[in-house]
Amino acid sequence: MKSIQLSFLLLTAIFSSSHQLSKPEDPTYTAAVVEHSQPVGDSPRTRTTSASESFQKIIREVGDVDIIVFPEHIINSQATATFVPHESQNITPCYQTDYELFLIELSCSARANQLYVVINVVEKELCAHGAGSDTYNPCPSTGVRSPAPRRTRCPPCGAKSYRYRIGVYWGNETTVIGVDRTEQATCALFACTDVRLASCGYIYPENEEVINTHHFTKLSISGNFPAAPRGRRLIMPSTLNALFLPVSVADYEWIESPEAANNVDKPILVDLKLEKPQNDLLTFAIWANYYTEIPSTHNLDHMQPNGTQTSPSTSSSSTVSVFRILCVLSCLISVL
Ligand SMILES: *[C@@H]1O[C@H](CO)[C@@H](O)[C@H](O)[C@H]1NC(C)=O
Ligand SMILES: *[C@@H]1O[C@H](CO)[C@@H](O)[C@H](O)[C@H]1NC(C)=O
Fold first, then answer.
1. Which of the 8 DSSP states describes residue 32?
2. Does residue 130 line the site of ligand 2, with CB under 6 A?
3. Considering just the CA atoms, what is the radius of gyration of the chain in Å?
4. Which of 21, 26, 38, 150 has the least C-beta neighbours within 10 A?
5. What is the pTM of this model?
6. Interval between CA 311 and ligand 2 midpoint (Å)
7. Mind listing the pLDDT tens digit for each residue in 102-161?
8. Domain assignment present for 76
9. How far does the centroid of ligand 1 lie from the alpha carbon of residue 173, in Å?
10. Ligand 2 midpoint to CA 309 (Å)
């Protein structure tokens, strides 16, 4: 299993021996596999508490087994992620306070009932100063990271995942912060929360558990951006991940041919390519502003005080020839 976030924990009663059903020399051992419904509760915390109580009851009542295996996606979630001791530390969470209460309780329960318990938890780790295992996520300022979920499957866990669309646009029907007219061009891959186009560009509310099912290992976008008819053009990458940060410049390649800044009179071919896999992309795009001179037609003129219209452009611009933006978007989306 690739995921770092989900670890199977074997909580052992280290001093168990006499009670154990099976001996090391036995060819078999007795295992119990638990099916469990989703715990109920208003918050992640109450759901975890309720699941922990239920697991402990099952451990107490399971009877003569050597090992009991609980299902994934039940005991905790991102909000109740727990530190997990490394096996080399030889730590029994029952004796420590560094872990989430449920982990301590289940460890003690395993010990008291002298059996092995396998649970599957959402884990967090210290990551400040380069600590922690290598993940695709940057370390947040808190210094504690709960790796963005990378679960292999998500049975009835109710978690959401982003869908993606690709879009190609060149036109005047765009605005800056919903107010000023612009002429923009873009070749973009972007996230949506459901099938509706109107859901694109929005994120899930904070209390939703989001588990992405799309893991981008290869993603390249090429766009042929036309020359700037008015002599001004800005072409740049537009990227965003689920931490609301741009994708690190080290994680993608950006090639302009010829160089955009010094060749506004020429069309530019831009290639944007992922260099490192990403599992929490919200936007990955080439974006261009052509600085329209079309005046705004509404009265929200905070950028044009008192409604003064700066000299409407003359009709000479009608000679602008028709360019086509050709975006060759090739995405190889591999799903874990
Ligand atoms: C944007 O509007 C200007 C002025 O009407 C026009 O010349 C230009 O072709 C339009 N751009 C696009 C991409 O349609
Ligand atoms: C806009 O109108 C106000 C009030 O009439 C005036 O004081 C201000 O100087 C005007 N601003 C500009 C940029 O013309």
1. E
2. no
3. 27
4. 26
5. 0.48
6. 18
7. 999 999 999 899 899 999 898 888 887 777 655 546 777 788 777 654 444 444 457 889
8. yes
9. 10
10. 14
